[in-house]
Design a protein that fits this description.
Helix content: 25-40%
CATH topology of the largest domain: Rossmann fold
Order of helices and strands: HEEHEEHEHEEEEHEHEHEEEEHEHEE
CATH superfamily of the largest domain: Vaccinia Virus protein VP39
Strand order of the largest sheet: 3-2-1-4-5-7-6
Largest sheet: 7 strands, mixed
Distance between the termini: 39 Å
Number of helices: 9
Shape: elongated
Structural class: alpha/beta
Number of strands: 18
CATH architecture of the largest domain: 3-Layer(aba) Sandwich
CATH class of the largest domain: Alpha Beta
């Protein structure tokens, strides 16, 4: 990002001399050397990136105040087109100066710029390092059709850009159908998303405490909006490092397995290891995964017993019991 921003500044982009520079969804390792640190306010709802930015001394919030005004905004293009639209609409509404959008070609920057040109006049754009940066000013333009909004979904709510925003994820639905009627008094939904699995778990009258652990603050807000059960506790946290204050009887999860566009089995493996640490000695883990993902070895290291208890051609459902001392 910094290389493209520096080129843009050399090519005619002017940042205001005073005022806040708002960054929307910057990655935790974003190169911000072209910006004055004291002027930067980052909005990052993804907990691992939030924590990485915070460790660097950057002021960061999961959501900006509705009445915030800033001198300029930089939008870091997400993969989800509807979320990109929502971020650009927010940037246009909050910025008194330029709105800058930066993204990789693989994340759809070309199509976003094509759509932008139908709404505003781009003041400049340039290409660098398999991506593009462009900037414009918005003067009272109508962005209502691009604004972030709740989506109603069979009694649930989702938002643009959250995982499985358009419907129940088939892997989660498959896992829900293979869970026993009761998992114990204390259960953890690790990577809870917008709350589908948690809502199913709360159908058990014997459940006394359910921890929803989710790294995406926007997805967790969706879950909060529809789950009013007092047994549910919501935790905006990195599932790989979060620990409950008391050991859980069971953990259920449909872990992520992508970093950007690349498959990264290490993510799911880290979830497995985290689950082992938070379970009681007799606790059980239920996990659904794509068939090709190599979780069995990690499960064998972290638990005394593992087995496949269901699945189909795309997914497998694995149960692991009795976390080992090595795994914990």
């Amino acid at each position: 990002m910094s290389a493209r921003l520096t080129l843009a500044l050399d090519a005619g982009l002017e940042l205001p001399d005073v005022g806040r520079i708002l960054l929307l969804h910057p990655p935790g390792d974003a190169d911000l050397s072209a910006l004055e640190p004291g002027r930067v306010l980052a909005v990052q709802p993804f907990r691992p990136d939030f924590e990485a930015l915070e460790r660097r001394g950057i002021e960061v919030v999961p959501e900006p105040p509705e009445d915030l005004r800033v001198a300029a905004t930089i939008v870091y293009l997400p993969r989800a087109k509807d979320l990109a639209h929502a971020l650009l609409a927010r940037a246009a509404a909050m910025s008194d100066g330029p709105v800058i959008v930066d993204g990789a070609k693989t994340d759809g920057i070309e199509s976003i710029l094509k759509a932008l040109r139908k709404r505003v006049e781009l003041a400049g754009s340039l290409s660098k390092a398999h991506g593009k940066i462009a900037w414009f000013r918005s003067a009272g333009d109508d962005w209502s059709d691009w604004q972030d909004s709740w989506r109603e979904l069979d009694g649930f709510r989702t938002r643009p850009g959250v995982f499985s925003a358009d419907g129940v994820d088939p892997a989660s639905a498959l896992l829900a159908g293979h869970l026993p009627g009761s998992l114990g008094r204390h259960v953890v939904d690790l990577g809870a998303g917008w709350g589908y699995l948690s809502a199913r778990l709360l159908e058990d009258d014997g459940l006394r405490r359910l921890d929803l652990v989710e790294a995406d603050a926007r997805a967790l807000d969706c879950a909060r909006a529809v789950i009013a059960d007092p047994r549910a506790a919501f935790h905006w946290a990195d599932a790989r490092t979060w620990r409950p204050d008391t050991a859980a009887d069971a953990v259920v999860m449909n872990p992520p397995f992508h970093t950007g566009r690349a498959a990264d089995p290490a993510l799911g493996q880290a979830f497995v290891q985290a689950a082992a640490r938070m379970l009681s000695g007799s606790g059980k883990l239920y996990v659904v995964a794509n068939r090709q993902l190599p979780y069995e070895a990690t499960l064998a290291q972290a638990f005394a017993h593992t087995e496949e208890i269901g699945g189909d051609g795309r997914f497998k459902i694995l149960r692991a019991e009795r976390p080992s001392r090595r795994g914990r």
